[in-house]
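Researcher: Next entry in the queue.
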Amino acid sequence: MTYPSSQILTCVFTLTSLLFAGGNELNAGELPAAPDNTFSIVIIPDTQHYKGIDTKGDLGSKAPLSNKVFAGWTDWIVSNLDQQRVAFVSHVGDIVDKNNREQWALARVNMDKLHGKVPYGISVGNHDMVGSSGDSSLFQEVFPKSRFTDFDWYAGCFENPTGKASVSGNNANSVQLFEAGGMKFVALHLECNAPDDVLAWADSILEKYSDRRAMVTSHMGLGPLEKPKSSSDYFDAAKGRMKWKKCHGNRGNTPQQMWEKCFSKHKNLFMLISGDQGRTQAMKQEAVGSQGNTVHELLSDYGASGLRVMRFIPAENKIEVRTWDPLKGRLCEKTSYVPSRDQHQFTLEYKMRSDK
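Model: Structure for this entry, 356 residues:
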């Protein structure tokens, strides 16, 4: 994820039409509470907003390292676990901006707020590893498998058969199980451009838990179809499931290859979640798997301007997706890059009750 220095990614908000379905008016600073018989999944986009000493976003600063955006988002999630009936939290990756121990230590402080309070998973982004090699050693130091094994919702991780855990191993690719709304879910968090051996493991997990509704978070997904050759391509070129990659060298798979080799084959998969593309910012599309299942593909990478709250309404077979800025207490209606409201506030059809 790369942001221009002009910081024109700031969302533009209005307070005249801030409604969730059902006609509940939204007071400034409040997201309407989730009604009975609904639940929410929160998506944390890229959290690269570090300021202070030795940061890209604050060159020359001698101030202590900070990340007010990351802190504000996780504070809001913890404060709203009950009100929003949060069943799960997913981080799309690019947890840090510079892959150093100082930023990882601060990331751990922010994610610790969720620890033991709600099931969660983290995808490893390109900024979270040494891209060409796929080495995610620092992520593994801070968020290792051992940190999660005591939780009954944690179902394990890919174990690198070569014994070289620094590449792909020790929780760099993980699986979580949770239940909500009378339904069972399996969540996979895959590293950016996961290689074939990781995808084979993902296949086995999705097959093992074929009786559960499956969602996958992986850092790269939607964005410019082909690798941009100029800055304008990030904005103007054709977009969709990307056919280029950043990590793991020749071993890495593009988002399109990950779909073809793994995701498209599994009937229980209903959602793919990604971040990474701050100049695409928000995008959604539907795909159909090889067994006829609809898969919702969602990109969110709003800079400092919001996270995603997905409210599941089983009785209506709907998922209400809201882009919410906890720092300003407002919904995102449009952005400079994506002026259409329906890319930020929208409803997905998803069959949860067979009698509807």
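Model: The radius of gyration is 19 Å.
Researcher: Noted, moving on.
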